[in-house]
């Protein structure tokens, strides 16, 4: 019994480290990739390649689930995708929304410093909660509504901290960064893109969670469906937004080792989180997100000449507090006998559904 408890604690610590690094490193890497000197890759192509990597990885995982048998893999794909056309068509909606969301995240990372981006993107908690109430008829606790108010106030405080001062702020220092081939910094565009990404994240996540209810399909097979249907939308986005540049420069213009790393991080990172999230409760996930915000702030100071103001710190603290408050359930806290209580199979399934719906 002691060995089992120790093993469970090790998995929780592993989950904490994995979730923290995934949340922090991805934002920092996207920001660096969009502002570094040199040829600037097309973000629309990076989104497509991330879906390709995710598709291949999920295919390998389903192949392993089917006992390393190609015949069973083919049969499973045929049964899930071809024989259920209506279910497959329903996946088109979140697939399209996720492609637009991922493109907006690149726009946001191009115009917002990593710390502001990390804090602002937590508004997806608000949009997810609103759509959960509207679509799933889910009831929120009073503490959760209070958390959402704190979240909005915190994000607003962070944004005002970046635009309310004229000299010596992160906004002006951002403009004085060594110029590469990246886009000219526009905080309003970056913030608008982040808001759009949060809106789409909430809508697509709740829509997909509703679809997952009662479906006997593995998380990896769902990822195959999503990625497979996301590719046409992604290629269409490339043609519409960057058609001229693709024709003159090619699909892989600006790609190097770092861009490949960024694509793999974005694709595989979310799948790794899908594995460890079942060992992470709301408090642990809150810690991971909070640590990621702190890491992003500290790293931005050294990497991007970010200026940490008192107002930004207060706003980030409100956001961190709202994350913990939103995940706190008084009834569960009173009923729990110990911190090491193992979650039920139903709670694990719901956690997997939410994680897949977030698709990160």
TrEMBL record:
<keyword id="KW-1133">Transmembrane helix</keyword>
<keyword id="KW-0472">Membrane</keyword>
<keyword id="KW-0762">Sugar transport</keyword>
<dbReference type="Pfam" id="PF04142">
    <property type="entry name" value="Nuc_sug_transp"/>
</dbReference>
<dbReference type="GO" id="GO:0000139">
    <property type="term" value="C:Golgi membrane"/>
</dbReference>
<dbReference type="InterPro" id="IPR007271">
    <property type="entry name" value="Nuc_sug_transpt"/>
</dbReference>
<dbReference type="GO" id="GO:0015165">
    <property type="term" value="F:pyrimidine nucleotide-sugar transmembrane transporter activity"/>
</dbReference>
<feature type="transmembrane region" description="Helical">
    <location>
        <begin position="228"/>
        <end position="246"/>
    </location>
</feature>
<feature type="transmembrane region" description="Helical">
    <location>
        <begin position="40"/>
        <end position="64"/>
    </location>
</feature>
<comment type="similarity">
    <text>Belongs to the nucleotide-sugar transporter family. SLC35A subfamily.</text>
</comment>
<dbReference type="InterPro" id="IPR037185">
    <property type="entry name" value="EmrE-like"/>
</dbReference>
<feature type="transmembrane region" description="Helical">
    <location>
        <begin position="310"/>
        <end position="328"/>
    </location>
</feature>
<feature type="transmembrane region" description="Helical">
    <location>
        <begin position="258"/>
        <end position="277"/>
    </location>
</feature>
<feature type="transmembrane region" description="Helical">
    <location>
        <begin position="284"/>
        <end position="304"/>
    </location>
</feature>
<keyword id="KW-0812">Transmembrane</keyword>
<feature type="transmembrane region" description="Helical">
    <location>
        <begin position="188"/>
        <end position="208"/>
    </location>
</feature>
<protein>
    <recommendedName>
        <fullName>UDP-N-acetylglucosamine transporter</fullName>
    </recommendedName>
</protein>
<feature type="transmembrane region" description="Helical">
    <location>
        <begin position="143"/>
        <end position="161"/>
    </location>
</feature>
<feature type="transmembrane region" description="Helical">
    <location>
        <begin position="119"/>
        <end position="136"/>
    </location>
</feature>
<keyword id="KW-0813">Transport</keyword>
């Amino acid at each position: 019994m002691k060995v089992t408890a120790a093993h469970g604690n090790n998995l929780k610590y592993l989950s904490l480290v994995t979730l923290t690094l995934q949340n922090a490193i991805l934002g920092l890497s996207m920001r660096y990739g969009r502002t570094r000197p040199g040829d600037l890759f097309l973000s629309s192509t990076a989104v497509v390649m991330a879906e390709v990597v995710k598709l291949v990885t999920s295919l390998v995982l389903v192949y392993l689930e089917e006992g390393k048998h190609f015949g069973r893999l083919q049969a499973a794909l045929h049964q899930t995708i071809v024989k259920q056309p209506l279910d497959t068509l329903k996946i088109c909606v979140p697939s399209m929304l996720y492609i637009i969301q991922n493109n907006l995240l690149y726009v946001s990372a191009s115009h917002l410093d990593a710390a502001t981006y990390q804090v602002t993107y937590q508004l997806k908690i608000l949009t997810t909660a609103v759509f959960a109430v509207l679509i799933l008829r889910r009831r929120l606790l009073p503490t959760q509504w209070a958390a959402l108010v704190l979240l909005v106030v915190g994000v607003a405080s962070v944004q005002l901290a970046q635009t309310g001062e004229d000299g010596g702020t992160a906004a002006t220092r951002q403009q004085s960064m060594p110029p590469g081939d990246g886009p000219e910094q526009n905080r309003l565009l970056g913030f608008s893109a982040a808001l759009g990404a949060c809106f789409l994240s909430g809508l697509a996540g709740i829509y997909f969670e509703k679809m997952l209810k009662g479906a006997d399909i593995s998380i990896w097979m769902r990822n195959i469906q999503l990625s497979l249907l996301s590719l046409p939308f992604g290629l269409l986005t490339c043609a519409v937004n960057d058609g001229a540049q693709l024709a003159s420069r090619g699909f892989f213009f600006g790609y190097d080792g770092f861009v490949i790393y960024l694509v793999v991080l974005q694709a595989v990172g979310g799948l790794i989180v899908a594995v460890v999230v079942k060992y992470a409760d709301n408090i642990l996930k809150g810690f991971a997100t909070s640590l990621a915000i702190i890491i992003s702030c500290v790293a931005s100071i050294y990497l991007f000449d970010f200026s940490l103001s008192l107002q930004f710190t207060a706003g980030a603290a409100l956001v961190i507090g709202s994350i913990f408050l939103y995940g706190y359930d008084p009834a569960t806290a009173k009923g729990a006998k110990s911190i090491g209580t193992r979650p039920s199979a139903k709670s694990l399934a719901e956690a997997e559904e939410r994680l897949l719906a977030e698709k990160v």
